[in-house]
């Protein structure tokens, strides 16, 4: 059975979507990018809340770690194990090294957005004991299914929501506003390019830019189920909780028979849905007169 893994739009929305989700994914402030965050002080109570509903909870620690992060990271990993978090999403190999050094049992999920693109690299990390992989949003459906076929660990694939595109440790929004001496009353910012609007977020540890569209892979979700995909991820980032809750209900009840009706129901909620890169193969082409 494919489990539905959900990230609520805001941490305050957790209780509103918990009963309809199979698993929850959250980040930790100062240790995560691209995920709804809770503080380390809130971790114990949030885990308790999720476990009370007999649901799984995964924590993402997927930022690039610096020297000053290593000791706090070690403490945080120990807490996650103590509280029986079901898995840690990671990007930086420091997480893997600390995990091995401390002989922790909590599963690690390889979550390097732009690198989880092939089963050869995945097989390498499998030998180092990872417990799962969050597949890239930049590969095709065919490639996703090929990796799933060859994988020996659980696979997670995003089926709904804005896609993370870019992360920088620079404070791009603050720098822009300060340079042009612009007011900062708004809390919502967007990057406009070629008449497309890209959500952009600044946190203390850097800036994140997301896709201009909401990926809606409802039909593909049914196909993933047939191939025994372990997890389908729904991201609530930037979405009204009422609309996102309705999307979650649609994914929970979609069948081959009501698929077209279900697609239309989502399209009524959001005007900017798309299939992302699922049917757009990446082609590397040498420029003219270059070898």
Which key features would you list for this structure?
TIM Barrel, alpha/beta, globular, eight-stranded parallel barrel, 10 helices, about 290 residues
Describe what this molecule looks like in 3D.
- With 291 residues, the chain is of the alpha/beta class.
- The protein has one domain (3-161, 215-274): TIM Barrel (Alpha-Beta Barrel), CATH 3.20.20.
- It contains 10 helices and 13 strands.
- It has helices spanning 14-17, 43-52, 70-82, 93-101, 119-127, 141-150, 172-179, 218-226, 241-253, 259-269, and strands at residues 3-7, 23-28, 37-38, 56-61, 87-90, 108-110, 132-134, 155-168, 189-193, 196-203, 206-216, 231-235, 273-274.
- It has an 8-stranded parallel beta barrel with strand order 1-2-4-5-6-7-8-12, surrounded by 5 helices.
- The longest helix is centred in the N-terminal third of the chain and has 13 residues, at 70-82.
- The chain is globular and about 50 Å long.
- It starts with a strand and ends in a 17-residue tail after the last strand.
């Amino acid at each position: 059975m494919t489990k539905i893994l959900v990230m609520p739009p805001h941490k305050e929305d957790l209780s509103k979507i918990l009963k309809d989700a199979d698993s929850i994914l959250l980040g930790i402030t100062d240790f995560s990018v691209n995920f709804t965050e809770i503080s380390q002080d809130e971790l114990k109570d949030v885990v308790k809340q999720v476990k009370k509903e007999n649901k799984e909870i995964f924590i993402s620690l997927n930022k690039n770690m610096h020297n000053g992060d290593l000791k706090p990271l070690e403490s945080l990993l120990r807490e996650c194990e103590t509280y029986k978090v079901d898995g840690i999403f990671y990007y930086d190999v420091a997480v893997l090294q600390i995990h091995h050094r401390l002989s922790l049992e909590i599963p690690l999920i390889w979550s390097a957005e732009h690198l989880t693109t092939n089963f050869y690299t995945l097989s390498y990390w499998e030998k180092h004991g990872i417990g799962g992989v969050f597949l890239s949003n930049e590969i095709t459906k065919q490639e996703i299914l090929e990796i799933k076929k060859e994988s020996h660990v659980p696979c997670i694939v995003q089926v709904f929501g804005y896609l993370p595109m870019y992360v920088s440790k620079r404070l791009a929004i603050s720098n822009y506003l300060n340079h042009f001496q612009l007011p900062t009353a708004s809390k919502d910012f967007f990057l406009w390019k070629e008449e497309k609007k890209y959500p952009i977020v600044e946190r203390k540890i850097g800036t994140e830019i997301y896709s201009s569209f909401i990926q809606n892979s409802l039909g593909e979700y049914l196909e993933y189920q047939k191939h025994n995909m372990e997890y389908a991820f729904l991201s609530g980032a930037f979405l009204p909780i009422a609309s996102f809750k309705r999307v979650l209900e649609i994914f929970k009840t979609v069948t081959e028979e009501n698929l077209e009706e279900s697609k239309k129901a989502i399209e009524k909620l959001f005007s900017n849905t798309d299939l992302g890169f699922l049917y757009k193969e990446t082609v590397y082409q040498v420029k003219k007169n270059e070898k």
